[in-house]
Amino acid sequence: MKTHNLISILILSIFLSSCGMNSIEGMKNNIDEKSNEIADLKNYFSDIVPENFTVRIQYNSSDNIDLFVYGPIGDSVKREQLFGQWDIDIDNYIETPQTKYKKKYRGNTKSLELVKNKLNWNREIFSNLYDKLEKANCIGIRSRNPVEIEYGFSGMALLSFSVFDKNLTAEQQEEYSDDCMSMFYKENIVLNYGSGATGSLCTPEFKRKNKASR
Question: What is the value of pTM for the model shown?
Answer without folding.
Answer: 0.84
